[in-house]
Specification:
This protein is of the alpha/beta class. It has a single domain, classed as Vaccinia Virus protein VP39 (Rossmann fold, 3-Layer(aba) Sandwich). The protein contains eight helices and eight strands. The longest helix is centred in the N-terminal third of the chain and has 24 residues. The chain starts with a strand and ends with a helix.
């Protein structure tokens, strides 16, 4: 059964996050980032990031939004851990080439996982690879035709999924993610209320920039006479291919982790 939690404030959760906003600086050692167990230590330019909790020059609202996001991400991973104790061995992160801060933290807490960052924009994928080439794999394939066998990944993550899809393509994108994933899908999207947030607190854009999650452009803000992506289309697409474990709505995101249905069922839904 799907469970939903609505977070009106960021002080609801007081836990140590597996996606820390503040962490000890990592040594820069791209030549020797692999440890003796075959995993990866944090490397690249992780130490160049300014922890959000310590960066007092950044707007308060931006820091609060980032805290809410990472707290919610923790809860979603905990929901997965309740179903399976093993860490995912192979992860596909759609949009990870734009969300480098999130990707680095994911690599930090899952040092033995193989993580592929996918972006259909070849330029974005290339630039990301130049920045953190030693830790991740990179792919610029189209989201509607992924070059992977069924159930190749243990987990697929698509944060701010509407940045690389729209209401016409989102169904095909979700089906492709479910096809190549044998475990869990973790998806997020901006809620329409984000337009109100940005109108009230323009500085909240700092959080979206830091997380690498730009606001919708093609389908734009309502104040421009346009509409936000219809998240009901995304929710319906997810329900067709996966069973929801936990849904969260930390202002201003909608986030869900779901267990993919068996491959036979996924292929049937895709026809």
């Amino acid at each position: 059964m799907e469970s939903t939690m609505e977070h009106a404030s960021t002080d609801v959760i007081a836990k140590t996050m597996p996606f820390p906003l503040a962490e000890e600086p990592a040594e820069k050692d791209c030549g020797g980032c692999k440890d003796t167990q075959g995993g990866h230590k944090p490397c690249g330019d992780v130490s160049d990031d300014i922890p959000a909790e310590q960066d007092t020059n950044r707007p308060w609202v931006a820091r609060q939004l980032e805290t809410a996001f990472y707290n919610s991400l923790e809860l979603l991973f905990e929901a997965r851990a309740e179903k399976t104790s093993a860490d995912p061995k192979r992860i596909l992160m759609v949009g990870g080439c734009r969300q480098l801060d999130v990707a680095r933290r994911l690599g930090f807490v899952l040092p033995f996982s193989t993580i592929t960052l996918l972006d259909s924009d070849e330029t974005m994928a290339r630039e990301a690879q130049e920045k953190i080439q030693c830790r991740f794999r990179f792919d610029d394939s189209p989201l509607t035709a992924l070059p992977y066998a069924d159930d190749h990944f243990d987990m697929a993550i698509a944060l701010n999924v509407y940045e690389q899809a729209n209401n016409q393509t989102i169904g095909r994108v979700v089906r492709e993610l479910a096809r190549v994933c044998s475990g869990h899908l973790l998806v997020s999207a901006h809620r329409p209320i984000t337009g109100t947030l940005v109108s009230l607190w323009p500085k909240s854009n700092h959080a979206f920039e830091q997380l690498g999650m730009r606001l919708p452009t093609g389908e734009g803000l309502s104040k421009d006479g346009q509409v936000w992506p219809d998240d009901s289309v995304l929710k319906k697409a997810l329900s067709d291919v996966a069973e929801p474990l936990l849904t969260l709505q930390p202002w201003p995101w909608w986030m869900q982790i779901a267990r993919t249905k068996p491959a036979r069922s996924k292929r049937t839904q895709a026809v």
